[in-house]
User: What shape does this take?
Amino acid sequence: MLMKKKKLRLGVFKYSCCAGCEFELIYFQKHIQETFDNSEVVYFRMGESGGSEDGPFDLVLIDGAITEAWQADQLKRVRQATRFLLPIGSCAVNGGIPAIKNHTSELEMEKRVYQDITPVHSMKTHPVDDYVQVDGYIKGCPIGRRDLYEAFTSLLLGKKPDFFNYSVCVECKIRGNTCVLVSYGWPCMGPVTNAGCGALCPSYNRACYACWGPMEDANAPALARQFEAMGLTPDDIFRRFTQYGSPKPEFRRGAELYGSTTKPF
Ligand code: SF4
Ligand code: SF4
Ligand code: SF4
Assistant: This one.
């Protein structure tokens, strides 16, 4: 007689972000229904009401950056209630778009956004791994389907997920693209950006703007100096290295040459 396999107990938590990664997760279900059929959704507020925030979970996916104290508190509790925890998308992995505000004073930023700041309790933006240990990263803005598939199938098969650890340039060369940096002198962030998107933008004749976030050991200062030699202003260079992952040291090393990233993080 066949043994009934235990289902993977899944939790999905959302913090500060556009929720695009959770939408992507819902679309993604259609493609891997079999994998999802082996999961029990314990908590996923955008997917269905109810559920238990307390777990226990086998796998928790975190969407969004941490910008309020309650989020950090809950994140720590969730970490204790799960076997595997993966941040999904640039906001959770790198701070992402919400971290653009880290370069302006918190009060000034709150006043720009809200008429009444009395009930606002925001703080500087942090990626998930500033607060808890993580078991890997599903990168992208929104998340890459290949990495999502890799994470789910690996956990179901009991193996370690194999994520890309090289730059977008490698994928670009595999696709046989003309290099927009070398051939056209466009400020492409591909050399310092983690692969996973299949070099989407250069394949459509556009420079990469780093939405996947930094690759490990990225040499951001070298690329930043190259951008300067190409005529970009300090502001332009600073923005390129702070648009998607400004809290990450790999990108901050490039940004710091052309502006202050030392305003309170
Ligand atoms: S990573 Fe991009 S798509 Fe995902 S939640 Fe953040 S801003 Fe939205
Ligand atoms: S176009 Fe950009 S990503 Fe592609 S090889 Fe050139 S620098 Fe790298
Ligand atoms: S090429 Fe760069 S900006 Fe475009 S999708 Fe890939 S990582 Fe994002």
